[in-house]
Amino acid sequence: MRSAAVEQVVQARLILSGRVSTGLPAALRYRAEDPLAVRMAFPAAYSLDEPTGLDGGTEVVWTFARQLLAEGLEVPAGIGDVHVRPARGPHTAVELRAAEGVALLAFETAELRRFLRACFRLVPEDHEHLYLDADRALAELLG
To answer: Is 0.70 surpassed by the pTM of this model?
Structure first.
């Protein structure tokens, strides 16, 4: 039986300036029960919010369209808070925009492709509607 989720930990580079960057881990997540979305999670230490509790806070999670990530590997894609585009060499740039500021991250394109291949094996493109649970989605929305 296949897993209903895909998770892959990758190393990103947070671009601080034209010459300065720092590495940070990111967890890429995909669930068949939410077939249109991917999640990119970063450790709480990279949050701009004040840490809470003994564990130092909660991870920072960005949720956006799986198709946005796939398109952004080939051509610039995105409107709103998340933009993805090919970058120099074997990299893909992901720009995350929030009220607090903008974060520019560089990922190895091959790692993002590997993640997406696993996602598309789990839920093939154009078959997402077969995995959607409208009642659950509505209940979550109305919470």
So the answer is: yes
Burial grade of 5 (CB within 10 A; 0-12, 13-18, 19 or more): middle
- Summarised one tens digit per residue, pLDDT across range 87-120 is 988 999 999 999 888 999 999 999 999 999 999 9
Residue in 113, 103, 139, 76 with CA at minimum distance from that of residue 21: 103
Joined tokens for residue 19: 């010459």
Q: How far apart are CA 140 and CA 136, in angstroms?
A: 6
Burial 82-117 (b: 16+ CB within 10 A, else e): bbbbbbeeebbbbbbeeeeeebbbbbbbebbeebbe
Between the two ends of the chain, the Cα-to-Cα distance in Å is: 31
